[in-house]
Amino acid sequence: MSMQQLSAQDAQFLHLETGNNHAHLMFATIFDPSTAPNGKVRFKDIIRHVESRLDASPVFRRRLMKIPLALDYPYWIEDEYFDLEQHISHARLPDPGDWRQFSIYIARYFSKPMDLNRALWDIMVLEGLDRLPGLAKGCYALIMRVHHCAIDGVSGAHFFTAICDKDAKGTPALELPSTVPDLGDKPGNFDILRRAGISNITSPMKMVRTLVGYSPVLANAVQARFNREAASDAEVPDTRFNAKVSPHKVFDSMMVSLDDMKIVKAKVKGATINDVVLATVSGGLNNYLCHHNELPEQPLAAMVPVNTRTDSGEAENPSNDITSMVVSLPTLTDDPLACLEQVHQATASSKAIKSGVSARLMTDLARHVPGVTMASVMRLVMGMQQSSRLFNVVVSNVPGPRQTLYMCGAKRVADYGMAPIADGAGLFIATPSYAGQMTFNLTSDRDILPDISFLRECLEESFYELLEAAS
Q1: Structure pTM?
Q2: SS (H, E, C) 86-148
């Protein structure tokens, strides 16, 4: 085996972890056991299935080894005390077992901290979903949490697909590796000090080289920003979403058809599914804030994570490889299709200038930040977000599998999920897609969004206004 160290971007998510806020991702997937043998899946069947896929990813059996005084980034090493059954638990949804109770249970489970001394994932099998609308009797949820330092949205989707099957017979959805994954050797004290010393000495030089390499592009970008964007680059307004967060998270979700999304997309030349998502969010936030008499006079801004992998095969490697762009949302526009047109123009501009230069530059610089200063850098970034608002909402669109998948013979029928929020950024809207459907998943704070179900209704109204205008 070899020594495996977290990247700077991976380590950022460890420094986001606080007593009030946790930095893990969560996937909640509904399975219908009617397609399984005898129409039933037992808890021990799920344990046995996961055990058969432990070699699908190194995430399953490796843990963190932190370096004293944060002299360098942590290492991934094999969890010498790994016990599969310590990572999988079982529960039943309390009465009345309806959608509201499901949402509350999901949010409470997400709000619990993970044990950072063990492999950074766990699964909860949740039964008792018979009163959820649209589900057959006997359906259950498989709720998986994975820490964000191990995966991002794209590698996370690949990670979860790897433990699924492409048919009820148990044929793996993805080709399983022929060898046991490299979980990482435990470094000795000499190796730790040597590598930490090299990293801290060479990092400033690498940062300078990065800046010099970008200098011609930076000059052009700055000129373009002042010449073309200054007039429209208004200050990001203050909203209820830009408050401190508590340990108590809330969740809700809605589902739409991808075919309907494509009908809307076709009405604006060059528009993408992501543009339709942002237009839906813009209209939904307009409806919600108007209802509370809180709509700012300036447009809201969305931070949109962007996958920077150049090869689709890179998703197999569990890690973070993302940048972001900030998009102005036309929350002051009432015409749905005009809103979509403005979103499309904004995303095209952001991709060309902000994502193409600023965000990519910051990503490259972050790779060279010494481990000993990363904690301070992250505190500075989060302080900037609180003192001068950088955005109002995070909107992440991660395409998922197009084909129907299974596990233990049970059909995978719906995907939901939650993502980390932070002080000053108290609303995260994740929109994963699966088998012709897309869900809009809201993660927020109980004090920030006590009426989260109403925001979900506002998003539904916004989307169907778009669809009606497109039709």
Answers
A1: 0.85
A2: HCEEEEECCCCCCHHHHHHHHHHHHHCCCCCCCCCEEEEEEECCCCCCCCCCCCEEEEEEEEC
